[in-house]
Amino acid sequence: EEILRGATTDIYFVRSYELLHHMGLGGTPVVAEIFARRGGVFAGIQDVKRLLADKNGVKMWSLDEGEEFESREVIIRVEGPYDQFGLFETVILGCLASPSGWATAARECKQAAGDSAVFCFGARHLHPAVAPVMERAAIIGGFDGASCILAAKLAGGEPVGTVPHAVILIMGDTVEVANVYDKVMPADAPRVVLVDTFHDEAEEALRVAEALGDRLAGVRLDTPGERGGVTTDLVFEVRNRLDQKGFGHVNIMVSGGLNPERIIELKAAGASAFGVGSYITAAPPIDMTMDLKVINGLPVAKRGRIPGITDNPKLKRQI
């Protein structure tokens, strides 16, 4: 409700409305274009559509979510009475800037992982009102799933995850947790178990594999930095020890401080799934700019910009 009534916009747009309506110019027909200051992956248009869907006389064209764009490429065009959407310039740009930044970072990780699965574990790094938007953007960027419940639902899927170290610490034994998880969780919940809580990761991976056998889908390595973190040598050892004991079907999932470079290295060492958080949440927003390009049917622009509509055949009608 606060967003829709303009409470999250910059005050100068409210003052612009007051001036224009005082002069009887609030409903002036305009065409506005939004371009990005750097290239990336487009995300956030669904929120913009919800914002403008019921505004009288407003039409909108944009790229599709997940589409890549170049620096200074026009990614959205809005046409209609200025007072139907101008107040929301701040909101519209905000709906695009961070999600596109997050989606771009996710695309980089997914490209590094190739055919291996990548999941977003970043909800803990953001305010809960924002976290679902971030993880949905990561899925748009190419991630295979997200741990945040609402984020996964917004993206049309189901959340991904097993249990944290806390459960293992409370129960006191990783294998006991694995057995209880296997007994209690539904059959379609993959059996993936953390193996870095109490003992050597390779030893614990074998203990869990022997306990669950073919039912074990994977082990997860999340070794803390105090113990050196997850290294390529560690992944290589766990992978080979599992293979030597006949557990080649058990995948190795890695999480904790991952980025595209580390994903490439860890995949080469034997990891086959990745949980990424801080690399996505720390991604800088992609600066977006909205310009009026047509007023009352006439091409206009401020100095430094070209008047009139900028052609981009990639734009599709959204509203």
If you compute it from the alpha carbons, what radius of gyration comes out, rounded to the nearest whole angstrom?
Answer: 24 Å
Strand tally is: 14
The amount of helix comes to 25-40%
List the uncertain runs. none
Order of strands across the main sheet: 13-12-1-5-3-14
**Class by helix and strand content?**
alpha/beta
The major pleated sheet works out as: 6 strands, antiparallel
Taken as a percent bin, the fraction of beta residues is 15-25%
Q: Report mean pLDDT, rounded to a whole number.
A: 95
Describe it for me?
With 319 residues, the protein is of the alpha/beta class. It is 38% helix and 19% strand. The protein is built from twelve helices and 14 strands. It has helices at residues 11-22, 45-52, 82-85, 89-113, 131-140, 149-154, 165-171, 174-184, 201-212, 232-244, 260-269, 278-281; strands at residues 29-36, 40-41, 59-62, 68-69, 74-81, 117-120, 145-146, 191-194, 216-221, 251-255, 273-276, 288-295, 298-299, 316-317. A six-stranded antiparallel sheet has the order 13-12-1-5-3-14. The chain has a six-stranded parallel sheet with strand order 7-6-11-10-9-8. A two-stranded antiparallel ribbon has the order 2-4. A hairpin with a 2-residue loop joins strand 12 and strand 13 (298-299). It is elongated and about 80 Å long.
